[in-house]
């Protein structure tokens, strides 16, 4: 049972139609007029290849925006990526489907090539059955959705949930099969943020996913090296600046200010001194940060302390799904975002499927 404080009476109170911008996708079949607008917005940010100890080594003066998440929000430096795969697409697929990678309940997307996916390659085809997602859950409940990404491989999600491959909306009113209202891709994170800044000035999304690639790119080119100075640490500083740009848009625009949640995590870390993050047994690859910031989120709270019965700090391990009390995982992000929006869990999901990851202090 979810605490009442989590359940925003979104649809009933959906009387304010904030979004005035045109959809940027010419092929979108979404019926924008049917979209409800939530009392809140949720932005899920994945900073690709971000190690939590990079943030703490750089410190509050150097990465003030990550520290703002720590100071004003609830967080942990010891969340987990998927068990079997510490690479990009499998973990981002986990975030949006609420599943781990392998097994009967896994989403089963295991490859990671960087490419623009053709229209006949989808998550569903790989799985052999339709995979529900955070985009579908939000969109079917009348919410406006967007994905801003800095790697071409994220086209997999746009293709999987477009007007041809997304499932019919069975929850009246019919908001269409295209579950991602706006999809933007630019190869440089700075250009993605430029696009996002322009969008946030004229538009409001109820659920938005943003992908920032800089730490991963620096790690692959120059090694994951947390000594200061190093290209990797400079890239984390750059990611902090881009996060600051998002904070600025939230605060400069009355349509976002005071009603926006940030859920910030990553797909994987990276192995010290190496240019890769593939070894799924290496704690440096599977140890990741997880932050939640927004109205009612207790300042500086430890996410494990907020969830003493349902989540357990895994120490240096990455337990399997059937190995006792679970850690906080990046794959729980999608169901958390829907929970904040007052939308039920992603069907078929296994991570945070009870939407029992508490991010607010109990008030009743
Ligand atoms: Zn990655």
Brief write-up:
With 364 residues, the protein is of the alpha/beta class. The chain contains 12 helices and 7 strands.
Give a topology summary:
Elements: E1 41-47, H1 52-58, H2 64-72, E2 74-80, H3 88-97, H4 123-127, H5 134-140, E3 145-149, H6 155-160, E4 182-185, H7 189-202, E5 207-212, H8 214-222, H9 231-252, E6 260-265, H10 283-286, E7 287-293, H11 303-306, H12 333-341
Parallel strand pairs: 1-5, 1-6, 3-4, 3-5
Antiparallel strand pairs: 2-7, 6-7
Helix pairs in contact: 7-9, 8-9
What does it look like?
By secondary structure, the chain is of the alpha/beta class. The protein has a single domain (4-10, 38-341), classed as Alkaline Phosphatase, subunit A (3-Layer(aba) Sandwich). It has helices spanning 52-58, 64-72, 88-97, 123-127, 134-140, 155-160, 189-202, 214-222, 231-252, 283-286, 303-306, 333-341; strands at 41-47, 74-80, 145-149, 182-185, 207-212, 260-265, 287-293. Strand 3, helix 6 (155-160) and strand 4 form a beta-alpha-beta unit. The longest helix has 22 residues, at 231-252. The two termini are 13 Å apart. Zinc ion is lined by residues 48-49, 88, 216, 267-268.
What are the main properties of this structure?
disordered N terminus; 364 residues; binds zinc ion; 7 strands; 12% strand; Alkaline Phosphatase, subunit A; 7-stranded mixed β-sheet; alpha/beta
């Amino acid at each position: 049972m979810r605490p009442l404080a989590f359940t925003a009476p979104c649809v009933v109170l959906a009387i304010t139609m904030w979004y005035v911008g045109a959809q940027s996708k010419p092929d979108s079949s979404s019926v924008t007029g049917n979209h409800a607008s939530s009392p809140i917005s949720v932005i899920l940010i994945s900073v690709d290849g971000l190690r939590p100890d990079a943030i703490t080594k750089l410190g509050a003066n150097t990465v003030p925006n990550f520290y703002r998440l720590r100071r004003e929000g609830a967080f942990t430096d010891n969340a987990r990526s998927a068990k079997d795969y510490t690479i990009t697409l499998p973990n981002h697929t986990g975030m949006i489907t609420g599943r781990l990678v392998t097994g009967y309940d896994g989403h089963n997307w295991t490859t990671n090539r960087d490419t623009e996916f053709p229209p006949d390659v989808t998550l569903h085809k790989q799985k052999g059955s339709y995979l529900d997602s955070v985009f579908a859950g939000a969109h079917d409940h009348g919410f406006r959705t967007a994905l801003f990404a800095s790697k071409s491989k994220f086209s997999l999600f746009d293709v999987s949930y477009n007007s041809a491959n997304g499932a019919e909306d069975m929850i009246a009113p019919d908001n269409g099969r295209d579950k991602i209202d706006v999809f933007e891709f630019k190869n440089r994170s700075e250009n993605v943020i430029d696009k996002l800044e322009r969008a946030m000035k004229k538009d409001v999304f109820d659920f938005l996913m943003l992908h920032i690639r800089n730490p991963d790119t620096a790690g692959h080119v120059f090694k994951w090296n947390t000594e200061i100075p190093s290209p990797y640490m400079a890239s984390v500083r750059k990611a902090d600046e881009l996060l600051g740009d998002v904070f600025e848009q939230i605060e400069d625009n009355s349509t976002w200010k005071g009603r926006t949640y940030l859920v910030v995590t990553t797909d994987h870390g990276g192995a010290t001194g190496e240019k890769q993050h593939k070894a799924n047994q290496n704690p440096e690859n599977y140890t990741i940060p997880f932050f939640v910031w927004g109205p009612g989120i207790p300042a500086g709270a430890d996410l494990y302390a907020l969830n003493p019965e349902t989540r357990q700090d895994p120490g240096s391990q990455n337990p399997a799904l059937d190995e006792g009390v679970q850690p906080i995982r990046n794959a729980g992000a999608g169901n958390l975002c829907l929970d904040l929006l007052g939308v039920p869990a992603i069907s078929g999901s296994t991570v945070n499927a009870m939407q029992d990851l508490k991010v607010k202090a109990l008030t009743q």
